[in-house]
Amino acid sequence: MAPHGTGAANPDRLLDHPERADIRLEAVLHACADPMRLLIIQALAADPSTACGEIGLACSKSTATHHFRVLREAGVITQHYRGTAKINELRREDLDAVFPGLLDSLVAAANKQSGKTTEPGSLRG
Amino acid sequence: MAPHGTGAANPDRLLDHPERADIRLEAVLHACADPMRLLIIQALAADPSTACGEIGLACSKSTATHHFRVLREAGVITQHYRGTAKINELRREDLDAVFPGLLDSLVAAANKQSGKTTEPGSLRG
DNA sequence: CTCGTAGTTCGATGGATCTCGTAGTACGGT
DNA sequence: ACCGTACTACGAGATCCATCGAACTACGAG
Question: What residue is closest to C5 (Cα–C1')?
Fold first, then answer.
């Protein structure tokens, strides 16, 4: 038996995302309750469609993978491959539909706390 | 030496609360990311100034104490004694000042998810 | 095919966290 | 003074979580 990566478990490189209806508030909050993941969210809010590596996360690659996964499984972000890179996006529409206003106040709070100036106009593409 | 409760550590029954400026977003989110504590928050949102025991929590008393403490130390609620009862209140003003809109969307999300009808008069003015 | 880049998986470790029962303190009434 | 109610503090057990390094897969370019 191969000691690692049982290989080809997902040949098309597709990723599982929870349906909109399956997004749970506790999971979303838990996902956001981590400084590293909050950073990711801020980065994606400022810059949609960013690859994992493009966000300068101060941790190892495996840790980064872990955090992105937590966010995806909670329904906060979507991920899809683009060549060798993995592109991340906030699930704005879904989150707004399920928990109206939550994401916005969350991002605003994160930006405020980190002293970021989310200048008016950059919020929406 | 008394094996438990070193007694009179706080003769006036005063409780430590973080200052408004010391409230951290991660801590607030983490505090809210628990079903039990989310229940407490919903209860306090619907009914300010409630004693610990008045919320029908499905857990032991020591566990309840623990959850209330987490909420207090995160800056989500205040607690003060009134006779033998301990009264809890949401720190609405402080939270609104530090993270505008967050508490409202949080409570609304919790109510929505739990199918609670947030009294058609209290939310929309 | 080979190499480099991007990200994953596994396994381990150390630290939080949840939960509880038991034993304790504080207050208010009788 | 005594008792009951309300809640706390401690200690233990179980589980979860963040983090890492090492080994691995997948894709693209030359």
Answer: A84
